[in-house]
Amino acid sequence: MRTDTPQTIYRKDYTPPSYWVDTVEMGFDLDPEATHVATRMTLRRNPDSPNRNLVLVGESLRLEQLRMNGKDLSKRQYALGRGTLEIFNPPDNVTLEIETVTHPAMNTSLMGLYVSNGNFFTQCEAEGFRKITYFPDRPDVMAKYTVMLRADKEKYPVLLSNGNLIEQGDIGDGRHYAVWEDPFKKPSYLFALVAGKLVCQEETYTLKSGREVLLQVWVEDGNLDKTQHAMDSLKNSIRWDEERFGLELDLDRFMIVAVSDFNMGAMENKGLNIFNTKFVLANPRIATDTDYAGIESVVGHEYFHNWTGNRVTCRDWFQLSLKEGLTVFRDQEFSADLIGTDSGRAVKRIEDVRVLRQAQFPEDAGPMAHPVRPDSYVEINNFYTVTIYEKGAEVVRMYQTLLGRDGFRKGMDLYFERHDGQAVECDDFRAAMADANGRDLKQFELWYSQAGTPRLKVDTEYDADAQTYAVTLTQSCPPTPGQAEKQPFHIPVAIGLLDARGKDMPLRLEGEQQDEAPATMVLELTEATQTFRFKQVTERPVPSVLRGFSAPVVLDIAYTDDELAFLMANDSDAFNRWEAGQRLAMRRMLALTGAVQNNQALSDAELEEGTLNDAFRAALNDEALDPAFRELALTLPSETVVAEQMDVIDPHAIHAVRRFLRRSLASSLRGDWMVAYQANRTPGTYSPDAIAAGKRALKNLALSYIVENDDADAHHLAQTQYDNANNMTDRIAALTALANSSAPGRADALNSFYEEFEQEALVVDKWFALQAMSRTTDVAAVRALMKHPAFTLKNPNRARSLIFSFCNGNPSQFHAVDGSGYQFWAEQVIALNAINPQVAARLARTLDRWRKYAPALQEKMHAALKKVAATKELSKDVLEVITKSISN
């Protein structure tokens, strides 16, 4: 904890390390109360560094011994500062021996070495290694590690670390040891160890080269039956990376370990990936289709880091998106390729864009807005954001859009050829893409250095006599903290033109030599305004702009309702077909929200006769469309996304309108919903495959609409599904529908669900979350749930399931007019700050956009922010978020 003003770190101040580290040998005597760590490292002076002293960093450590080149250092030769160990004027070549003591059982931050359920785990990214020993803990210092683990054999029979196991045996006195060697250089943030009572599923796998490797998934006893999907996902990941990018697993074994106490989703430590149990454990009884998809995606993500993050890492933490944005793109492509169909790829694309719009666009418009490559930070953990990850992935995707799939692969090949084994910058990746394809991508750098979401305005003009169609694109980007003026981005705009029959027209651009006339063309917008003119356009078309969401921008185009309905029914680009429906719904929701704010009554009859109702009915009954796509098309924009379209957010009006629309659509299309429900049942053995999951998604959406009618027949349907479900997807969907209704069996269903699954932590998380997000749950109900014996603030998953779900997923109740939600938020941020600052900072982000709300709510939000700001010993994680929220 800190009481002083934390230091701001600037990208412009980067200096190379004073010493490089070549080898690291570590010995751990593992004890939960006091673990002794002996480290021997060989270092050599970096001639490019102006600093003559050797500065190491450490946190929450007791220094027991310090030796250099075989001799103990005197107090005059070094200084221990707050978090630093500085050795004065050492020689050019150094062998440094350090012995430290750390206290894993007391480490509730879950960074460094900590204990969870009696087992040892580590989390070193971004700056956790300094909680283990004094070290130049920065990503550009890469070394080869050899690690010996020693522990009580009965208590800790499994001893794991990075790389390959080279020796193990008994020491005596009931203790044993294991020695691990990582043959590849890595930064300290990729170090890992695990020790405890664990069991594993293991398989041998033959790589494309013919080499056999050992794959292991380690879990606590009792969870072995939940590991097959993670193992299958790992094998699929290895195969995909070989086929798509020619990248092979470089170790003799690859291990995944699941832990229930974890701040993140997973961590890509070299060869020893440590995962939140949420992204490992699955069987039909406890995991939903979404859980299965999430496991596949996260296993892929962490495995792909083996090359994009481990073999080539980032020079400094400002370059974080170099590995994260690229690897998110890779895991998105992996999941899409695994589905295999065009419609399946489109569904995956829509899901990814929904996350971007719901989370990243608001971040870009708030006080925590930052570029994909930030210029400064106070606490690096605060920059593991949707901008770094999801927007970073969109930036990488634009390379592929501009260069094509083959061109992108050429760029990747050159990137690894140039930089394997190095710590590099985002500009190095851009240079590889440009050089491999002979392209000038200098302007593309602005996607890394400028914050904010660009706006793309589209104006069109049809000349019937000349048979030309002019498309004028104008870009702008609003100011963000520290960046008032923005230069034009390099924006790829994929476009198509539809004729009156809804068919794609061949595209011929004036001034361009074309061998073919494609149905979709990528226009490259590089100026503030450019006009592109298509020729031989025989009739006025309906434009389909930004196909596949070809750039992370806000599209401003003046479609009529009829044109949106036409695109929703006919566009060959599935993303834009979905987008047209969302625009149509958004337009209606914003109009109705204005009516509610003006105290006007909402009319069901008006909706039933409208374009939205007709468009929904057409999509619902279009059997040619995949069920998964129809589920997405028939889901109204979330309250968060609607809020982003308003100058002044009114959460209660938005909630009232969204519920009104759902009830109106439920009533007017009740028969259609029932047909869809029955037609998409999935009897028989459960399978999480894309086709079956899509059917369940549409069926359960239909159920949610049917239960909006809140009558006895609807209640009976939900209760019957709950009672008869043979999988968690259907069980939780029915329980959620009941929890949002007035069904007499609602409380009994919630109680019976808990009693059945109280030993399954991940399912109990679902139980807390669905109640937290129920529209009937207010602050008092959440406080009551916090007193439940299964609730604890110390476990991040449990805290997120209840507190985060309420504060971020139940806006109408959280934004209670009396400010009780904000008072509750402040209390929880303060409480979490004392336990786990990283989790507390995530919750602190909930109010960072308080200035967008009505004055009455603003006043109460500001008071809650000030309450947190006034807390003594506030961590720098939380302090940075609160300070920026108040001041920007």
TrEMBL record:
Native source species: Noviherbaspirillum denitrificans
Domain Peptidase M1 alanyl aminopeptidase Ig-like fold residue range list: 452-556
Domain Peptidase M1 membrane alanine aminopeptidase: 230-444
Pfam families: DUF3458, DUF3458_C, Peptidase_M1, Peptidase_M1_N
Record bears the keyword Hydrolase: yes
Enzyme Commission number(s) from the entry: 3.4.11.2
Domain Aminopeptidase N-like N-terminal: 34-190
GO biological process, one term: proteolysis
InterPro entries in the record: Aminopeptidase_N-like_N, Aminopeptidase_N-like_N_sf, PepN_Ig-like_sf, Peptidase_M1, Peptidase_M1_dom, Peptidase_M1_pepN, Peptidase_M1_pepN_C, Peptidase_M1_pepN_C_sf
Protein name: Aminopeptidase N
Enzyme class at the top of the EC tree: hydrolase
